[in-house]
């Protein structure tokens, strides 16, 4: 076995002392506060609404930091014909002293306009203004609009994307979405909605927490519950590209129950629509609902703490070691229940009794429970956009400690972030671990931070991390990452045990490279490749096939080795105790052919169920009702409900991320998938991002928010008149093309290998032929399609032919679907 395992186990103090060798340390700039005990401050920032067809939509929330283009994905504001965008600023006690705005392209490298607004109207606690956007925009192109509002004391930033379209379809879509939401609350009015449903007998209609376009009519109309809307809904046009529209409506409903009680439910309707000459089609609809837990006596029954209507991803729980306490998260609120004292404490919530809910109820944050102790102490993270309190209007991560004895929530640190909530959440889900020696490890923007909770000092464990260059163990206590920026040519892998602070290394022999492949449980999987083994397909390097794979335990002892003569490994996926290997055999120099996959069954225990401690039952009226499981009976009439008396900022610090975040020199494109009104996931592999979005009638963007693929926006028939001329925009880059990238002329050239032929038709519709490789170095141009055929042009023979879509799909599939596609962006 060509490997050397260098064990560098060290104690924590030695680990700190050796940072100069192993880490890039980042001693923090700490903003120490004097001892402060106070309740959380109420929301204070104004919000901004934009108008569409005379209707207020797109509630923009203020940022106290520059977010660049990272907050722009939340909404798009469609401009009227004269480009004058009407806005209204709800002041909430502030006084607006200045309004300015800036228009840039989405990549932010070109300033289109910067303007100070001179006139506005004030009255009834709000300010109305028109942003006179100049005639410098291209029709149907998307731009970034950042609005700056000055209040004398603060300068606040608001973000949205804007488009100047040549149609009014967006207004019609928003109007339809609003009518749909309101009618769904009334059984009789909802009959008008039947034509939009795609009711399927196989659809699960058991839970009101998640309703889709395939639901039956009864499920759509809340299964006969007596529901009514509370307050006004918040309507957001999330996306519009001229044909496709994505609208989200957030609202609250009250359920009037038979026993006279009244429960509140936060609901969210997500619509994906398509316009054509006949009508607006509803392509996808999803409603998510989460009942607000208030700790009332009706919330406790038998051995259950009833959470009500909700979803799997909205609830989590953790018990103390001796089951004296249980912490549970429901929605964006955190509670703790004391089994002995029969006390329920709302440990954390942004909700407010004095706010109208527009700001305090803004749902762009989440909570992660880190620990629950038998003395009632709890550690947890609050991450995302801060609705109120000390960091209102900022994006980041706050570490809190709940002290049961003191009845206070103590802030430990705030880690700022300049990426969107979706990205912050994805990072926290990947890695956020509290070790046994009071070190908190967090991944944020490609950097892993270690924060010592005793001294409030921090260090940078690793930075410049990219997809595929690192892995986290099942319980997040172990972390492995490759050294260097090249995914396939790393000579060293670092492995860290967070609980022991032991750091170890894996290196190969001379001319060998090491790759992190994942974990199965807490056992690390890595592979070895030789520098001479490169896999090149049609001029592009696909990777470096590995000649061996190893599984090592926590002591770095080899538990399993996979090595077979003449067999190479290209991809590895560890799932449910099984390791799936994609295999290759060599055909010649730098050429390989796929073989049948292989599977290794491991003895590692299955990962902990994220819903451990959570159960559900089918109620007669509400359907699927979630609850926290209890070992003993709970009498709801004897339960006391309270909130911590104060927040403490005595030992808090704001961590200075400095240049650590986003320090990667890797220029590979990242593709982000969206669908059903939400971020789904991201990948550097374009075909994987498309696959994520495909099932939800979604779309894919690049990191600058350009839509680079959309399942819906495609004409039924398209033929490019001059395919050779149009293809020159792409072919001039082929000799140097080595991966998806954006060129200076605004062309996005994408390696779409692995996508299906049907998915490639989107690019033909946008006017640039798709390059489809048919043999080594040779390609055809896909230049047209209709309902039954696709048109192929062969540049070598200069011949055009039509091929049936089904036949062509199978033909290119057998050629590994090796496509290159392109888009021109502003």
Lay out the secondary structure.
Layout: E1 4-6, H1 12-17, H2 19-22, E2 37-38, E3 47-52, E4 55-61, E5 76-78, E6 84-90, E7 98-105, E8 111-117, E9 121-123, E10 126-132, E11 142-150, E12 155-163, H3 169-183, E13 210-212, H4 217-220, E14 227-240, E15 244-256, E16 262-275, E17 280-291, E18 300-308, E19 315-319, E20 325-330, E21 333-338, E22 343-348, E23 365-372, E24 378-385, E25 395-403, E26 408-416, H5 421-430, E27 432-434, E28 439-444, E29 447-452, E30 457-462, E31 470-472, E32 478-482, E33 492-497, E34 502-507, E35 512-520, E36 523-530, E37 535-537, E38 540-543, E39 546-552, E40 558-562, E41 568-575, E42 578-588, E43 591-601, E44 614-619, E45 623-634, E46 640-642, E47 646-648, E48 671-675, E49 678-683, H6 686-694, E50 699-701, E51 707-710, E52 718-719, H7 723-731, E53 741-742, E54 747-751, H8 757-765, E55 770-775, E56 778-785, E57 789-794, E58 799-804, H9 805-814, E59 819-824
Parallel strand pairs: 5-12, 22-46, 26-47
Antiparallel strand pairs: 1-34, 2-47, 3-4, 3-6, 6-10, 7-8, 7-11, 9-10, 11-12, 13-17, 14-15, 15-16, 16-17, 18-45, 19-20, 20-21, 21-22, 23-24, 24-25, 25-26, 27-28, 28-29, 29-30, 31-32, 32-33, 33-34, 35-36, 36-39, 37-38, 39-40, 41-42, 42-43, 44-45, 48-49, 48-50, 50-51, 52-56, 53-54, 54-59, 55-56, ...
């Amino acid at each position: 076995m060509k490997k050397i395992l260098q064990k560098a186990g060290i104690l924590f103090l030695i680990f700190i002392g050796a940072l100069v060798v192993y880490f890039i340390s980042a001693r923090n700039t700490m903003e120490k506060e004097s001892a402060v005990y106070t309740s959380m401050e109420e929301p204070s920032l104004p919000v901004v609404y934009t108008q569409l067809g005379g209707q207020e939509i797109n509630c923009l929330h203020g940022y106290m930091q520059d977010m660049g283009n990272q907050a722009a994905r939340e909404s798009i504001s469609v401009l009227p014909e004269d480009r004058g965008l009407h806005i209204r600023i709800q002041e909430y006690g502030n006084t607006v002293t200045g309004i300015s705005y800036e228009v840039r392209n989405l990549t932010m490298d070109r300033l289109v306009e910067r303007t100070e607004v001179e006139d506005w109207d004030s009255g009834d606690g709000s300010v109305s203004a028109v942003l006179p956007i100049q005639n410098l925009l291209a029709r149907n192109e998307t731009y970034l609009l950042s609005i700056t509002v000055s209040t004398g004391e603060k300068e606040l930033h608001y973000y949205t994307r804007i488009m100047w379209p040549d149609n009014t379809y967006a207004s019609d879509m928003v109007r339809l979405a609003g009518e749909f939401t309101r009618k769904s609350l009334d059984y009789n009015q909802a009959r008008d909605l039947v034509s939009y449903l795609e009711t399927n007998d196989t659809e699960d209609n058991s839970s009101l927490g998640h309703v889709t376009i395939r639901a039956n009519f009864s499920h759509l109309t809340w299964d006969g519950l007596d529901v009514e809307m509370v307050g006004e809904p918040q309507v957001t046009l999330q996306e519009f590209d001229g044909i496709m529209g994505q609208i989200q409506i957030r609202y609250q409903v009250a359920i009037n129950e038979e026993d006279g009680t009244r429960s509140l439910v936060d609901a969210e309707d997500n619509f994906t629509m398509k316009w054509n000459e006949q009508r607006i089609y509803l392509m996808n609809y999803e409603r998510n609902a989460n009942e607000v837990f208030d700790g009332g006596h009706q919330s406790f029954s038998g051995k259950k703490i009833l959470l009500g209507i909700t979803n799997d991803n909205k609830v989590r729980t953790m018990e103390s070691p001796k089951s004296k306490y249980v912490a549970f998260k429901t929605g964006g609120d955190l509670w703790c229940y004391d089994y002995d004292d029969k006390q329920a404490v709302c440990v954390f919530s942004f909700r407010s009794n004095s706010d109208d809910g527009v700001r305090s109820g803004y749902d762009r944050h989440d909570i992660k429970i880190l620990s629950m102790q038998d003395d009632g102490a709890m550690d947890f993270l609050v991450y995302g956009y801060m609705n109120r309190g000390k960091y209102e209007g900022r994006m980041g991560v706050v570490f809190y400690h709940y002290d049961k004895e003191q009845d206070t929530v103590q802030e430990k640190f705030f880690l700022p972030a300049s990426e969107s909530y979706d990205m912050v959440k994805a990072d926290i889900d990947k890695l956020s671990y509290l070790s046994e020696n009071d070190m908190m490890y967090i991944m944020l923007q490609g950097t892993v931070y270690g924060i010592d909770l005793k001294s409030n000092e921090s260090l940078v464990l690793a930075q410049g991390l990219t997809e595929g260059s690192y892995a986290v163990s099942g319980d997040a206590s172990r972390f492995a990452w490759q050294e260097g920026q090249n995914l396939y040519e790393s000579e060293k892998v670092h492995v860290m045990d967070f609980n022991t602070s032991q750091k170890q290394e894996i290196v190969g022999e001379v001319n060998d490279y090491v790759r992190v492949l994942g974990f199965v449980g807490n056992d690390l999987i890595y592979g070895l490749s030789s520098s001479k083994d490169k896999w090149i397909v049609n001029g592009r390097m696909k990777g470096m096939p590995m000649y061996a794979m190893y599984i090592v335990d926590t002591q770095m002892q080899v538990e399993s080795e996979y090595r077979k003569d003449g067999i190479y490994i290209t991809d590895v996926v560890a799932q449910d105790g099984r390791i799936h290997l994609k295999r290759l055999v060599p055909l010649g120099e730098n050429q390989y052919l796929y073989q049948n996959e292989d599977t290794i069954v491991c003895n590692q225990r299955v990962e902990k169920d994220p819903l451990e401690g959570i159960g559900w039952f089918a109620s007669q009226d509400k359907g699927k009702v979630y609850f926290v499981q209890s070992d003993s009976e709970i009498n709801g009439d004897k339960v006391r409900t309270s909130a911590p008396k104060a927040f403490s900022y005595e030992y808090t610090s704001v961590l200075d991320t400095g240049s650590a975040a986003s320090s990667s020199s890797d220029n590979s494109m990242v593709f982000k998938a969206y669908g059903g009104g939400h971020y789904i996931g991201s990948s550097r592999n374009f075909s994987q991002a498309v696959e994520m979005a495909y099932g939800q009638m979604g779309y894919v963007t690049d990191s600058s928010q350009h839509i680079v693929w959309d399942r819906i926006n495609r004409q039924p028939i398209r033929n490019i008149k001059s395919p050779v001329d149009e293809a020159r925009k792409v072919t001039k880059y082929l000799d140097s093309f080595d991966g998806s990238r954006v060129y200076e002329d605004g062309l996005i050239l994408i390696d779409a290998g692995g996508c299906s032929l049907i998915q490639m038709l989107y690019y033909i519709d946008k006017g640039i032929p798709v390059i489809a490789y048919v043999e080594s170095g040779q390609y055809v141009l896909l230049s047209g399609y209709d309902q039954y055929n696709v048109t192929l042009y062969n540049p070598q023979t200069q011949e055009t032919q039509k091929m049936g879509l089904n036949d062509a799909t199978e033909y290119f599939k057998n050629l590994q679907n090796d496509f290159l596609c392109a888009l021109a962006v502003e």
